[in-house]
Amino acid sequence: MPADGAVTHDTLTPRRRPRAGGQDGGVSELRIGLAGAGPWARRVHAAGMAAHPRVRLAGVWSRRRESAEQLVADAGGRVYDRFADLVDDVDAVAFAVPPGVQAELVPLAAVAGRHLILEKPLADSQAGARAVAAAVEAAGVYSTMMLTLRFDPTIRSWLDGIPAGAGADTVGSMRWLSGSLLGGPYAASPWRAEHGALLDVGPHVIDLLDATLGAVTGVDWAHRADPDLWRFGLSHAGGAHSTVMLSSRLPVDPTEVEIAVFGGAGRHLLTSRPGDARACYAVLLDELVDAAATGRSCSPYGAARGLHLQEIIERVREIAG
User: Fold this and answer.
1) For the chain, what is the domain count?
2) Is residue 315 part of a domain?
3) Contacts (Cβ under 8 Å, ≥6 apart) of 261
4) Cα distance between residue 45 and residue 7, in whole Å
5) Residue 4 within a domain
6) Residues 228 and 158 in one domain
7) Strand, coil or helix: what is 306?
8) Same domain assignment for residues 19 and 111
9) Percent of the chain with pLDDT over 70
10) pLDDT value at position 176?
11) Which member of 5, 14, 118, 119 has the greatest number of CB atoms within 10 A?
12) Domain identity same for 115 and 209
């Protein structure tokens, strides 16, 4: 690996081997390799795998070997110097790397037949997201994305209580305001600093409104103001409309999260943040192991979902200028 930790194609040539799982449901333990060793990888991915009875953290690959060594010292597994070797050794790959790196690595794991745990956003560009989604679809592997809100039991129950098919007589709104980029473990992330709340928090917000009011079909308007304050309006299949306000650079602690639905679909208000991210990750792992056992290759939270969200985000950015 180059001294600066850059990814080269010479190090990324995985050797294909059959995926774990099958119609006989014979998966007793899923071996997962982790790409990335930053704060989120340690706090959620590695900790979640260590606590789950049906998965095992096989090892870690990172662009910075010392970070991988620190992670495995606490969580177990081995350090891989080559991403290809990690892919060759596991049943699934979990990604906790910047979006641009994820876009480069996912197709290599997909073509090797590995199940995929993806992070949002899918890539750092719409073109990259399209390439990832196409590679996953062509490989026919199971992919799921860590859209934390969608794996929280309380939020799932709230969604179940909203009638399907919201029409033009229904409006929704969502607010997500935090100071996460003012300090703390994620404030030093270069891609978050560059793209702000829209690329970081936007997938969560748009995904939940999409699930609540119907598929987002367009962006009605969009504005951006300092400090990293995004406001935009969405139109949904069936005629419903929603508004969004989000920022990661406001002095707000704890994070302010609220989603509201009013009109023909009734009155539904949710003001609680999702529970512990590791608990949500445990639900994701449950579903991944079940999919591996049955040979299922379709998840509502997979790469295709990530592409849909990224297309909307890019449209918001275009309109906001």
Assistant:
1) 2
2) no
3) 162, 166, 170, 171, 172, 212, 213, 267, 268, 269
4) 21
5) no
6) yes
7) helix
8) yes
9) 91
10) 95
11) 118
12) no
Domain end among 273, 288, 311:
273
Task: Convert the pLDDT of each residue in 207-260 to its tens digit.
Answer: 999 999 999 999 999 999 988 999 999 999 999 999 999 999 999 888 999 999
Is residue 69 in a domain? Answer: yes
Q: Give pLDDT tens digits for 35-59.
A: 999 999 999 999 999 999 999 999 9
* Helix (H/G/I), strand (E/B), else coil: 270: strand
- Nearest one of 30, 180, 155, 48 to 93, comparing CA atoms: 30
Contacts from 73-82 at CB under 8 Å and sequence distance 24+? 74/42, 74/46, 75/42, 75/46, 75/47, 75/49, 75/50, 76/50, 77/34, 80/33, 81/1, 82/1, 82/11, 82/12
Q: Which residues contact 120 (CB under 8 A, 6 or more apart)?
A: 145, 146, 147, 203, 204, 306, 309
The sign of the torsion formed by the CA atoms of 233, 205, 128, 186 equals positive
Could you tell me which residues come within 8 angstroms of residue 285 by beta carbon, excluding any fewer than 6 positions away?
Answer: 48, 49, 52, 54, 55
The total number of residues shown for the chain amounts to 321
pLDDT of residue 156: 94
Q: Which residues contact 306 (CB under 8 A, 6 or more apart)?
A: 118, 120, 121, 122, 129, 132, 133, 145, 203
Same domain as 106, residue 82:
yes
Query: 189: pLDDT confidence band, cut at 50, 70 and 90?
Result: confident
- Give 135's contacts (C-beta < 8 A, 6+ positions apart): 106, 107, 110, 111
Domain that includes residue 183, residue range: 153-273
193: which 2 tokens? 């600093």
**In a domain? residue 83:** yes
Nearest to 178, CA basis, from 161, 195, 196, 162: 196
The two three-digit tokens of residue 272, written as one number: 């609680």
C-alpha to C-alpha distance for 147 and 101, rounded to whole angstroms: 19
Which domain CATH number covers 266?
3.30.360.10
> 62, 35 in Cβ contact below 8 A?
yes
